[in-house]
Amino acid sequence: MKNSNVSIIIPTYNRCHILNKVFKALEQQTIDKYRFEVIVVDDGSTDDTADIVREFSVNSQINIRYFFQENKKQGAARNLAIKHAEMPILIFIGDDTVPDIRFIESHLSFHEKLENPSQSCVIGYTTWPKDIKVTPFMHYIGEFGHQFGYSLINGNCPLRFNFYYTSNLLIPSSVLAKHDYFFDEDFDVYGWEDIEFGYRLENSGAQLFFNRKALAYHYHPVTVSSFCKRQENVGKASNIFIKKHPELEWFLGDKAILENNAKPYIKAAIYKNIANLLDNLLSIPLSHDLYRFILDTYYAKAATSISND
User: Are 111 and 117 in contact (CB under 8 A)?
Assistant: First the structure.
């Protein structure tokens, strides 16, 4: 796979305000522009996404291909891109993920040196940009597992399926073609579709590695309150996941444990409001245990509410 060409895949929904920044970063990549294409799948946006993509592609030297679909969520958008991708290497990024200038070069250089690149996937390092305010809570979720868990990675050994972060992920197209793999479109709420995808890839024999030098910046500030809403969606989606893979109850949460974790919901809601104030206005860091308690309670509450309906 030496000197492979790349399809950059970007699912997007109502993020036209940041797409220009993503495109400009791709235009400045250190590898030759003919070596990569950019596939944008618009998942039913109602803003100016189509105009932004069209205007940029007319004036740019990079090859941007645009597809529109009615709102079917990110998994379906990525699947549409996979079907149209023409390069042997796929790199998935988010529509709010701005690549470093050496992003593609770093991904390819690392991947080519792996022992078995044709069966190896790679996550890069997605971090917060320097030109936005990064609160203590944002640092926590970006490093310790609820959004990304980079600080939990030790050494260069293959990673487990729960590290398949599609904000910054390289996959050889041969891996998907060999197993006829696509994202599961039954996930109709946010959460888990990329991890479920990674679980199937892991079971097929694919390996996942971490390349810290494949750097991208995440332009999506969050608060404790907004992230708790995300946790609720992830909790709801866990019910879809566990029906497909009951053997992962240990990972997604045993029902009895989840019900117990959901009991202090009112306490967690109070702590959430306090943490949100301290974090957002005063940038006062709280313990990881407290952050974890709040987020895990919101997850458990949503997961058990759906499963009991």
Answer: yes
- Domains of the chain plus CATH, in order, are 6-131+145-218 (3.90.550.10), 224-307 (no CATH)
Q: What is the pLDDT of residues 222-281, one digit of tens each?
A: 999 999 999 999 999 999 999 999 999 999 999 999 999 999 999 999 999 999 999 999
Tokens of 191: 């959460």
Angle ∠(258,154,285) on CA atoms, nearest 5: 60
Check if the beta carbon of residue 76 is closer than 8 Å to that of residue 100.
no
Q: For residues 203 and 198, what is the distance between their CA atoms, to the nearest angstrom?
A: 9
Q: Which amino acid is at 194?
A: D
Q: Residue 164: phi, psi to the nearest 5? A: -75, 80
pTM: 0.94
Q: Which residue in 17, 65, 15, 63 sits closest to 41, CA to CA?
A: 65
Please enumerate in sequence order all residues whose Cβ is within 8 A of that of 282, keeping only pairs 6 or more positions apart, or say none.
none
The per-residue pLDDT for range 174-207, each reduced to its tens digit, is 898 876 679 999 998 888 999 999 999 999 999 9
Dihedrals φ, ψ of 83, to 5°?
-65, -30
Residue count (the chain):
309
